[in-house]
TrEMBL record:
This is AGAP002853-PA-like protein. Residues 1-24 form the signal peptide. Keywords: Signal. The keyword Signal applies. It holds the Pfam family DUF1091.
C-alpha cells in the first residue's frame, strides 16, 4: 500500500486539470506549492521521491517505496480533492471525497486509472493483488502531462490528500497543494 498514495495522487492531479470548467484558447501553468507526507512515522512505509518540472504542464516523478507491513482489506484508501479561488484566504470547496476498502480500491480505481500506465515504469502490483505483501516498490520517470487537459483547466488552488487508513486512523498519506494560473 505504500504505492497507493502515489497512484492516487497522480489520479487526483488529473482531476485537478479536468474538473472545474472549460476555458478554450487560454494558456495555463501549474506549480506544485506543497508536497508532503502525512502521519508518516515510518511504521508502514519509508520512501523517497523526486519530481521535476519539465514544462509548464509536464512533470516527471520517480519514487522508491518500502512497505513494512502486509496490507489487507482492513485498510482503506481515501482520496480528497478541494479547490479554492486564487485570492488569499479563499476557502477550499471539496470536489471529491472518496473512500474504499483497499482490495476494492485496487480492483476499481487503481485498475481503471493507474495500472496500465504504471506497469510500464514501475514494479507496482497487479490490480488483483490483495493483500499487498510487505516489499519494496519503485517508479522511474513517470511523466504526467497535463497538456491534453489544458482546454479544461481553470485557475485556482487545489488541495489533494491521499491517505491510507486503519479504521479512522490515518496510517500514511500525502498532501499536495497546486496552483493553476493563466500563463503570463
Amino acid at each position: 500500500m505504500g504505492t497507493v498514495p502515489w497512484r492516487e495522487a497522480l489520479l487526483l492531479i488529473a482531476f485537478v486539470v479536468i474538473g472545474h470548467g472549460v476555458h478554450a484558447e487560454q494558456e495555463f501553468e501549474m506549480t506544485i506549492d506543497k508536497l508532503e507526507r502525512m502521519n508518516d512515522n515510518g511504521e508502514y512505509f519509508t520512501y523517497n521521491y523526486t519530481y521535476d518540472k519539465l514544462t509548464e504542464l509536464k512533470y516527471s516523478v520517480s519514487a522508491n517505496l518500502h512497505q513494512h507491513k502486509e496490507l489487507d482489506n482492513s485498510y482503506s484508501v481515501k482520496a480528497l480533492m478541494a479547490r479554492a479561488d486564487l485570492a488569499e484566504g479563499s476557502e477550499f470547496e471539496v470536489m471529491l471525497n472518496l473512500q474504499k476498502p483497499l482490495c476494492e480500491w485496487m480492483t476499481t480505481i487503481y485498475k481503471t486509472y493507474f495500472y496500465e500506465e504504471l506497469e510500464k515504469v514501475s514494479n507496482f502490483p497487479h490490480y488483483d493483488t490483495c493483500p499487498l505483501p510487505a516489499t519494496e516498490y519503485w517508479m522511474k520517470e513517470y511523466v504526467f502531462d497535463y497538456e491534453p487537459y489544458k482546454d479544461m483547466m481553470s485557475e485556482g488552488r487545489w488541495k489533494i490528500e491521499m491517505m491510507m487508513l486503519k479504521g479512522d486512523v490515518v496510517c500514511s498519506g500525502i498532501l499536495m497543494i497546486n496552483t493553476v494560473k493563466l500563463k503570463a
